[in-house]
Structures are given as structure tokens and as C-alpha cells.
Amino acid sequence: MRHLSITQIISQIHSFVDDLAHEGIQNHVEIYPFLELQQKYHNLSFSSRLEPTLDIIYYVNTNIYHKVTVKDVLIHANQYCNPARAQRDFKAEMNMSISEFISAKKISTAQKLLRETDDSVQKIAEKLKFYDLNDFSKQFKRKVGISPLMYRKNNYQEENK
């Protein structure tokens, strides 16, 4: 969340409160405080584009270790709103397309795995469902500026100096 704007953080909080309320209902727990909190948050005014955007972010985040395509996202979004509108709203809110978001999320997850695990670059590429190791390496280098191996080496050295 360090790299999110204040608007994006507030949106994440809204989504989190909704998730808590929903989980409470599903699990039959004492959820009145959560429902009250949810109602307070939703009484604040926010962009009508925000809800489908948050839903798309949540979908991508929860499916990051699967092959996620824009088509998959729009099929999911179709359950709640018009897919074309969801796509426009997402771009307006996030200043990037759904495809760019999926790619950025996969690369940031790869960076985390490279920093925090001993998994091989090949295994990370497979976990994140890249086409192959070469595709992963090219995309990683295009976005980050260095190869996955160099990224791991640089971050390992920085953490252990």
C-alpha cells in the first residue's frame, strides 16, 4: 500500500469494510459494528467508478497465480456491471488499462517472490503463469530495467550489507 495514492487507499478501505461485513454475514458472527462502519463509509461521497474498479483490483489480486486475461476480468465484471463501462471506469480511476494493471501486478508479485523466496526464476515464471521463462524475463526487464536474476542479486546484496 506504500505506493498507493490517498484515494486508492481509501478505496481499499471501503472494499475491506465491505468484505468484513460480507464475511460476518456468511459466518453468522456478531457483525453490527462492521455493518455500522460499512454504512458510515458508504455515506461518504465517492466516485461511481470506484466500485467496479475495486472489484477488478480484487479479482486480479486474488487470481494473480492463475492465467488472468482482460477477457476473464470482464466476464467477472459482467456479473456486476457493464463490462465496457467497467473497462472505461478502470482506466479513468487507475490511469492504466486492465491489461497494464495485470502486467504490473504480476511483475510486482515477481519482485516480491525474488526478494523473499529462494524459488528459481523458472519456478516464479511458472507460478505466475507467464508463457515461458523467456517471456517472463523480457517482460520483467522491460518493466524493471534489469533481468530477474540481476534484480535478485541486487536486492540480496542490499539486504545483507
Give a quick precis of the structure.
The chain has 161 residues and is an all-alpha fold. It has helices at 6-26, 32-43, 50-62, 70-77, 83-94, 98-116, 121-127, 133-144, 148-159.
Supply database-style keywords.
single chain; 161 residues; mainly alpha; 72% helix; elongated
Q: How does the SSE layout of this entry go?
A:
Layout: H1 6-26, H2 32-43, H3 50-62, H4 70-77, H5 83-94, H6 98-116, H7 121-127, H8 133-144, H9 148-159
Helix pairs in contact: 1-2, 3-4, 3-5, 3-6, 6-8, 6-9
Query: How would you state the average pLDDT, rounded?
Result: 80
The largest sheet is: none
Q: Structural class per helix/strand content?
A: mainly alpha
Please report the number of helical segments: 9
Shape: elongated
Which stretches of 5+ consecutive residues score pLDDT under 50?
A: none
Query: Percent helix among the residues?
Result: over 70%
Radius of gyration: 18 Å
Distance between the termini: 26 Å
Count of strand segments: 0
**What percent strand?**
under 5%
